[in-house]
Design a protein that fits this description.
The protein is built from 5 helices and 5 strands, in the order αβααββββαα. With about 120 residues, the protein is an alpha+beta fold. The termini are far apart.
Length: about 120
């Protein structure tokens, strides 16, 4: 009897083929090892931490499904997470966006602090 070895890239390509054939991506579930680092380029340990903290790469982590001890990701949730990411034309534009985000965050924190003292 031959034991079939699990290959995350084969699983991912099969899931994407189903998606391209019109199968509903909300019904396609992928194992964690097929999503990380093949669709979302972070290590699986980072993904595990993201499930605890709720953030991945500075934004909300993609939703996951738990079946007992097994963690799976719906293809629709992963695609939505990827589509919602910010895109930039240059590194200068990305750096400017980061500075603006940090500035807004600092201003928001100062305003909250002032409200507590009033």
């Amino acid at each position: 009897m031959t034991v079939k070895k699990f290959d995350p890239t084969t699983t991912l390509s099969d899931a994407l083929a189903k998606y391209h054939d019109g199968f509903d991506p909300a019904l396609i579930e992928l194992p964690e090892s097929a999503v990380f680092p093949y669709l979302i380029s972070v290590q699986p340990t980072t993904a595990r931490k993201a499930r605890c903290t709720g953030t991945l790469l500075g934004r909300l982590a993609p939703r996951f499904v738990r079946h007992g001890r097994v963690i799976r990701y719906r293809l629709r949730d992963v695609l939505d997470w990827l589509a919602d990411g910010d895109s930039y034309a240059s590194t200068a534009e990305a750096a400017e966006a980061k500075r603006n985000h940090l500035l807004k965050k600092t201003c928001h924190q100062k305003a909250q602090e002032e409200q507590r003292h009033v």
